[in-house]
Amino acid sequence: MTGWVYWLDLAGVVVFALSGVILACRSRMDPFGMLVLAAVTGIGGGTLRDLLLGVRPVFWVSDPTYLWVVIVTVTLSIVGFHYIHRLSRIVLPVLDAFGLALFTIIGAHKALALDHAGIVAVLMGVLTGVAGGMLRDVLARRVPMVLRQEIYATASIAGATTYVVFDTLPIPPYLAVAMAIGVILTLRLSAIYWHLSLPIFAWITSSPGASIKHEATSKPRVKARVRLIPPGRRRR
Q1: Which contacts qualify for 85-93: CB closer than 8 Å, 24 or more apart?
Q2: DSSP result, 177-189
Q3: Is-above-0.70 flag for pTM?
Q4: Longest CA span, the chain
Q5: 157-204 tens-digit pLDDT
Q6: For 7, 39, 89, 163, which has the most beta carbons within 10 A of its beta carbon?
Q7: Contacts of 147 (CB under 8 A, 6+ apart)
Q8: What is residue 212's predicted lDDT score, i.e. its pLDDT?
Q9: Which residues are CB-contacts of 15 (< 8 A; sequence separation ≥ 6)?
Q10: Which residues pair with 206 in a beta bridge?
Q11: What are phi and psi of 90, to 5 degrees?
C-alpha cells in the first residue's frame, strides 16, 4: 500500500472511530460500548470489503496499527469526555461526511489495485464508506443514515465514480483523490446544511368521502396509491 493511501486510511479510521465514540456517548454507553462502536465504525466497512474481494488476511489482521488507532482514539476521547460531551449535534454528521469521503476512495482504490472492473471498484468504495456507519447505527438502535432519504450513499457513489474515471486519466493520483473527496464532501455537507434529500415513494391510503354511504355491517373501502413526495413537502 502506497504511503498516501495508508495515511489516508488511518485518518479515515480516526474520523469514523470518533463518530462512533460520539454516538456511544449520546446513547449512554460504557467504555466497552464506546470501544465496540468505534471499532465497528472504523474498521467494519473495510473488513467486509476485504472479505468480498478475497483479501486474506483482512487489513487490520496483517497490520494491527489500525486496532491501536481505534484504541488510542477511544482512550483520548474518554480522557477528554467533557469536551466530547459538549460537541454540537452537527459534529457527528460532519465527521461522518469526512469519514465517508476517505473510506470511499480507499475502497475504490483497493479494488482497482486488485485489477477489478470499474463498476466493482465503485461498489467496493460505497461498501467501505457506508457499511461501518450502518453497523454503528444498528448497534445504537438508530435507522442507518444510508437507509433514510438523506443524500448519503448517493454522495459515495458519485465520489467513487469520479475517482474511477479520473484514475484512468494521465493525471497525478493525488488529483484524482482530491476531486473525488471534493465531490463527496460537497454533496454530503450541502445536504446537511440545506437539508437536501432525495424524493421518496410513500404508500398512501385514503378513505372515501363522507358523502358516500355504507351499510352498517360493511367496511368502508380504502383506496391506496403510491405517491412520489418531493423533499420540500415532507415534515422535518
Answers
A1: 85/25, 87/22, 90/192, 91/22, 92/19, 92/22, 92/23, 93/192
A2: HHHHHHHHHHHHH
A3: yes
A4: 77
A5: 999 999 999 999 999 988 999 999 999 999 999 998 898 888 876 666
A6: 163
A7: 134
A8: 44
A9: 95, 98, 99, 102
A10: 223
A11: -80, -15
